[in-house]
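Table 4 source record.
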Amino acid sequence: MQHSIIDAEPYGKFHRKLFFLSAGGPFLDGYILSIIGVAIGGASRDLGLTATQEGLVGASALVGVLLGGLVFGWVTDRIGRQLMYTIDLIALVLSSALCVFVDDAWWLIVLRVIAGIAVGADYPIATSLLAEWLPADRRGRTMGALVAAWFVGAATAYLVGYVVASVAGDEPWRWVLASGALPGIVILLARLGTPESPRWLLRHGRRDDAREAIKTAFGRYPTDAELDVLAAQEPPTKSRLSRVFTGGYLKRTLFAGGFWLCQVAPAFAIITFYPVVLGEYGFSDGNSALLWSAAVTLVTMAGCLPCIRLVESWGRRPVIIWTFVASAVPLAVLGFFPALPAVLAIIMFSVNALAQGGGNILQWIYPTELFPTDIRASAVGVASAISRIGAAGGTYLLPVSLEHLGLGPTMLIGAGIAVAGTVICVLWAPETRGRSLHDTASTGAATASAPSRV
């Protein structure tokens, strides 16, 4: 098949800018979901939170992410990527800023849900827009690199918490939560003027608008022949959410949501309550726990880096399978030996973090590659929503599990979830490296690609 103008265009200035703008969403997600672990101590004291309420506060943003992805993925497929690309950040900025006025637990929970909805909406919006502009030979590594931005955001949250706690203790926890509004405003303003996806425009019969979008991005108008090739790949189609759950796409939806759930259920729970979990190993000094939390989060980001390359050279399938295996083993060690010395516990958490970081890059590669343009954002939203069921459940149950079951059984539950993820990927993970977005999204095409080692 002849390459489209998008696949033929070399990766350049426009792609790099769009990547950084799209990475703003994962950065804010990591920041907002992790900053609650910094603020929970002060909030619990001032608002008199019970263990159950602490779990609800920690999980509330994840519930919002579930709702945001599920609803606004479909909306994005209907009204376009570019408009939603800015609207969702307005909601995020407002919900973060209003945390300054929180005076009871339910008010805090509601604002965290709204912030989560905005973050959840950004997942399908930003990933679909970026994937639809990327050439095939750079799509895997660029989409995978988005995940690294999440960990940068999480580490930044812990470092901000450390600085604030060192200067003022946990008294200004409301301002710590509200601090997410500042990077949100910067990213919102930078996103203004981003061109719409020409693939989406062609799916909606807007050929002239697609031509203008390509001119804005690449500095030249496409020829009629170039636009014809792209239009042939993106025929006008009405977006129907039901397609995500029918035919060959149902299995892909279950795969994408299933492996994502198994990755984030233990990861979000541990990351959200890193200071609490590390406290079980003797890091009773809150500031020390925050620094270790930032360090382990940066280790997770470091795990992304080699796998960003490996998904193109080794393949998507072996990377996701072996990173699940590598994340299960240290959690099992922590579960069977909960009395490990603090240094050894940190090593185990770091090994788990490296593996988690490597596997997590597939979260925004597979869902964008396995579905066509008319339902791509919907599918990413649904997969994200499925994953957040596990993430919200894990985050809500972790403090409860620590209180009632203890540290060892809690870590063994995390290891069991990682084993389940391994099984899902062995059975269902396709290999999509090296193929055009049109090919990987065609039912049945994604499994027949360059051979991999698994």
